[in-house]
Amino acid sequence: MGDLGQIFKAYDIRGVIPDTLDASVARAIGAAFAHVVDGGEIVVAHDMRPSSPELAAAFAEGASGQGVNVVMAGLGSTDLLYFASGKLGVPGAMFTASHNPAQYNGIKMCRAGAAPISADTGLSEIRALAEKGVPAYDGPPGTVTERDLLADYAAHLRSLVDLSGIRRLKVVVDAGNGMGGYTVPAVLGGGLLDALPLEIVPLYFELDGTFPNHPANPMDAENIVDLQAKVRETGADIGLAFDGDADRCFVVDERGEPVSPSAITALVAVQELAKEPGATVIHNLITSSAVAEIVRERGGVPVRTRVGHSYIKATMAETGAIFGGEHSAHYYFRDFWKADTGMLAAMYVLRVLGNDARSLSGITAEYARYAASGEINSEVADQAERAAAVEAAFAGREGVASVDHLDGLTVTLATGGWFNLRASNTEPLLRLNVEAPDAEAMAELRDEVLAIVRA
Hints:
Blueprint: E1 13-16, H1 23-37, E2 41-46, H2 52-64, E3 69-75, H3 78-88, E4 92-95, E5 104-111, E6 115-116, H4 119-132, E7 144-146, H5 150-160, E8 169-174, H6 180-187, E9 198-203, H7 225-234, E10 238-242, E11 249-252, E12 258-259, H8 261-275, E13 280-284, H9 289-297, E14 301-305, H10 309-319, E15 323-325, E16 331-333, E17 339-340, H11 342-354, H12 360-364, E18 371-372, E19 376-379, H13 383-394, E20 400-404, E21 409-413, E22 418-423, E23 429-436, H14 439-453
Parallel strand pairs: 2-3, 2-4, 3-7, 8-9, 8-10, 13-14, 13-15
Antiparallel strand pairs: 1-5, 4-5, 5-6, 10-11, 11-12, 15-16, 16-17, 18-23, 19-23, 20-21, 21-22, 22-23
Helix pairs in contact: 1-2, 1-4, 8-9, 8-11
C-alpha cells in the first residue's frame, strides 16, 4: 500500500480525496482495523461528504474480508457512531473529516464501548498493517448488514436529559450543512419521538458535504455570523452551532454573543455534580481557571489533563469522572461511554435555560470570571527554540507562581493570569492561549509572549 504517514494523525485519519485517501486505502485500513480490534463484529457510519459512502463501503469490504461481520449504520454523526459502539458493544469506524474543507475525508475509530484508538493505543499498529498488508485469511467472509440506529440514538439521549417539562424556548440551530441537519430533528424535533417544548429555527440543515454556505467549523468566529444574526432577528432564547460531524456544539446567547466552551463546561459540571456530589470532573489545561474553581465550590474534584480526546477519555476511565470538557467544545459524559457528544451538552444547556426564568446571558455570567485571548497561532521556523525563549523569559521571574510542561509550556502568575504555549503536531505553528483577571492584564501578557514567539 505504501507509506500512509501523511494521513495517519495522532487521533484519527485525515486525507485529501482522492490524492491521499481513496477506496483502495480505505479497504486496506478496514482489513487492518478488523485484524487489530480482533472482534467478530464492527459498526461503520459516515457523514454527508460525497466520498463518504464509497469509502465506508470499501472499509466494510476490507473488514468483512477478514471474517468480521459489519453493521452499516449509514448516515450519522460521530457521536451516533460512539452510541452504536457503546450500545452494541463492538468496535466502530466513522467516516468524516469533521470541520475540514470539502476536499478532505477521514476516519475516526474506536474499540468496543467507544474506547478511543489513538497513535499509542492501536492507530500505529493499524497503519503498519495497512501499509504491509494483513496476514492471509482463508476463512468465510463476514456479513455486511444495514441498520438504522438514529431513533435508538435519539431515545438514548432523551433518556439522559428530560426536556419535556421546560418552558418553551426558541432555538436557532446552524448545522452548517453537516450532520446536525440529520440528528437535530431526530433528537430535538418531533419527527421520531414526542415533540418537545422547543421551536427550532433551522439554518443550513440540508446535508451537503461541499459546504455551500460556510465551513462547518464554529470555532472560527466568521462561521457563526449567520447564527448570531438569526438569533437577534428572531428574538431567540439561544443559538446552537454544530461542526461537520456534529460531535461539537457551540452556543450563543439571546444577544447573539458567543458563550465560551469553558462556561458551558462549568454549567454542565454543576448539573452533573448536583446529580452526584463529590464526583470528579475533567478539564484540559487551556479551559478557564473558572472551571476548576466552580467544580471545587460545588464540592467536586477537578482534574487537569492534556488537550485531546484520548487523554480526556483515559483520565475519565482512571478517575471514574462523571464529566469532562475541553476549550474546543468537546464534552465527554460517563453516561455516554465516556465519549464526546455535543448534542448531549446542548440538551443540558437547554434544560438549565428552560428551568430558569433568566436569560442565557444572565445564567452564564457567573461562569465567566476571566478574560481570555482565545487560541492564537504563530508560524515559526523552530517551535522548540521559540518555546524555550519564552520559558527563559519567564522562569524565575518575580510574580511567576509555577511553570509546567504537562502539554507544551504553561506559566501561571501569582496574580491569577496564565498562558499556555503548545506546538502543533501537524504544522509549523505555536498555539498560544492566555487568560487573566481582566482584559487589560490579558492583553499585556498576550502581547509580551507573542513578541517573543514572533521575534
